[in-house]
């Protein structure tokens, strides 16, 4: 396969219609934690490619966040609005259980706390559950908080002050994470312009914040004058065309896998745009989910997530010192921890 993954599992249950892929990239630091994405992929190949990319990103995210967790991800092929059933989710839970704890699952695009409650009826390894079941609830709250901390760090690095007050932030996607981020930005004194493929999502944000401006689509948004661009929808948002026209000095958003290809980070650097690596700044959600394993405490999880600010500053400083993009600097820090701490597993402990 050549991807560096430890394990890829194909899951099929014709009775419930389940077709899923679970990818475990690394367990060097601990069990591979990563959410379950429920999405109508065009093909099985597309689903596998997404699972491979997302699981690797989770390994780096968990490492950089200082968690004792490896990285994994699962994707369920189908339309979550029409194909999601109790039988399908429980069948998926049995496949997760069969991995014996090598993979810990949680929410992602197309799955919610209530879905994980169903999955958990078949496995001990489902997290991000409803508060009614002792879970951490909606992890998008701390995901947005972490993105905001990363954005503050980027503002500090670029403009010398850790605030977005007086700046214009363009938010692409105001679903779960994007809408919480808008709340933080408005409270901090920023001007905000948004777009989303779902008009109802835009309407909900503007109902809370009448000063928020909205534009028709992402193509319009990236050409609208702004200081910070925040991609908060699906991956691949930063393609060559977008980078070429982007007026922002900073890119910092909640979406996973924002860079369309490996050269995108260098294109941003060449244009003088400071890129806050997505898996660094959107780690608040996984920090929240990880805390659930210890008996969830929101204040404790929020306190942990504030560390994203300091880690981002370290990444920006390392990038400058080494003459590389922040994406490369973040990868190096994550790989260093996976290597140095992960090797401890070779030291045998008495049973």
TrEMBL record:
An individual GO BP term: amino acid metabolic process
A matching Pfam family: ELFV_dehydrog_N
Xref: InterPro entries: Aminoacid_DH-like_N_sf, Glu/Leu/Phe/Val/Trp_DH, Glu/Leu/Phe/Val/Trp_DH_C, Glu/Leu/Phe/Val/Trp_DH_dimer, Glu/Leu/Phe/Val_DH_AS, Glu/Phe/Leu/Val/Trp_DH_bac/arc, NAD(P)-bd_dom_sf
GO MF, any single term: nucleotide binding
Domain of life: Bacteria
Domain Glutamate/phenylalanine/leucine/valine/L-tryptophan dehydrogenase C-terminal: 137-342
SUPFAM superfamilies xrefs: Aminoacid dehydrogenase-like, N-terminal domain, NAD(P)-binding Rossmann-fold domains
Family indicated by similarity: Belongs to the Glu/Leu/Phe/Val dehydrogenases family.
Database matches in PANTHER family: LEUCINE DEHYDROGENASE, VALINE DEHYDROGENASE
Protein name stated in the entry: Valine dehydrogenase
Source organism: Modestobacter caceresii
Lineage: Bacteria, Bacillati, Actinomycetota, Actinomycetes, Geodermatophilales
């Amino acid at each position: 396969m050549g991807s560096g993954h430890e394990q890829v599992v194909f899951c099929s249950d014709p009775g419930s219609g389940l077709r899923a892929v679970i990818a475990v990239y690394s367990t060097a630091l601990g069990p591979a934690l990563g959410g379950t994405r429920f999405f109508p992929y065009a093909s099985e190949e597309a689903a596998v490619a997404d699972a491979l990319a997302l699981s690797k990103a989770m390994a780096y995210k968990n490492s950089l966040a200082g968690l004792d967790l490896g990285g994994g991800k699962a994707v369920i092929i189908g339309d979550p609005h029409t194909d999601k059933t109790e039988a399908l989710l429980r069948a998926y839970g049995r496949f997760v259980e069969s991995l014996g704890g090598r993979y810990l699952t949680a929410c992602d695009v197309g799955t919610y706390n209530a879905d994980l409650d169903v999955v958990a009826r078949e496995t001990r390894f489902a997290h991000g559950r409803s508060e009614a079941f002792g879970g951490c609830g909606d992890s998008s709250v701390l995901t947005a908080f972490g993105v905001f901390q990363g954005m503050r760090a980027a503002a500090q690095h670029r403009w010398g002050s850790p605030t977005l007050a007086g700046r214009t932030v363009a938010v692409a996607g105001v679903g779960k994470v994007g809408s919480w981020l808008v709340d933080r930005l408005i409270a901090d004194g920023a001007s905000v312009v948004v777009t989303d493929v779902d008009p109802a999502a835009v309407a909900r944000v503007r109902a809370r914040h009448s000063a928020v401006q909205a534009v028709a689509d992402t193509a319009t948004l990236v050409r609208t004058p702004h200081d910070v661009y925040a991609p908060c929808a699906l991956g691949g948002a930063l393609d060559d065309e977008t980078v070429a026209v982007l007026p922002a000095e900073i890119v910092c958003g909640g979406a996973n896998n924002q860079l369309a290809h490996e050269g995108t980070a260098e294109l941003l650097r060449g244009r003088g745009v400071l890129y806050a690596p997505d898996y660094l700044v959107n780690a608040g959600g996984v920090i929240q989910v990880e805390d659930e394993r210890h008996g969830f405490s929101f204040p404790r999880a929020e306190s942990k997530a504030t560390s994203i600010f300091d880690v981002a500053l370290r990444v920006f400083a390392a990038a400058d010192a080494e003459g590389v993009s922040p994406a490369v600097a973040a990868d190096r820090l994550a790989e260093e921890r996976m290597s140095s701490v992960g090797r401890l597993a070779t030291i045998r402990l008495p049973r």
